Amino acid sequence: MSEEGKSLPPATPQPATVPDVVSVEEFRRLALRIGVITAAADHPNADRLLVLTVDLGDGTSRQVIAGIKGSYQASELVGKSVVVVANLKSATLRGVESQGMVLAASDGSAIVLVGPERSIRAGSLVK
Q1: Contacts from 100-109 at CB under 8 Å and sequence distance 24+?
Q2: Vertex 36, ends 69 and 44: CA angle to 5°?
Q3: Residue 115 in contact with residue 81, Cβ under 8 Å?
Q4: Element (H, E) at 97
Q5: How far is Cα 29 from Cα 27, in angstroms, rounded to an integer?
């Protein structure tokens, strides 16, 4: 409260802090590829996760767990192109294996998947 008993305006949001800087060589180690979601379902053991099947254009599919359920329904994701970290070490999330990570952006109120602006072949390298 100010001296006159009036509330002060909310503080101006601070820019997000930048994490430790990585070298170009470190960044190049990431295999960012375009993937096409071929199936999506609710995670059996988590309220905020979806289990995605993603085609990376190499003749195989990957299972990827994504924390996007609050912003997307499984049924709306099939056929959507997304950016995938294809060489991420597999991890088990709430009892289900994830073989990659889809990239998404968040402004604090919504999550938006990152994908190509135009149609491009699954497996294409993101540069």
Answers
A1: 100/35, 100/54, 100/62, 100/64, 101/64, 101/66, 102/35, 102/52, 102/54, 102/64, 102/66, 102/68, 103/32, 104/66, 104/68
A2: 35
A3: yes
A4: strand 96-98
A5: 5
pLDDT of the residue at 2 = 42
Residues 116, 105: Cα–Cα separation, whole Å: 14
Residue pLDDT, tens place only, 20-35: 898 999 999 999 999 9
Quote the distance between the C-alpha of residue 3 and its chain's center. 46
For each of the domains in the chain, give its residue range(s) and CATH number, in order of start: 32-113 (2.40.50.140)
Closest by CA to 80, choosing from 40, 126, 44, 51, is 40
pLDDT single digits (tens) 67-114: 999 999 999 999 999 999 999 999 999 999 999 999 999 988 889 999
AA letter at 15:
P
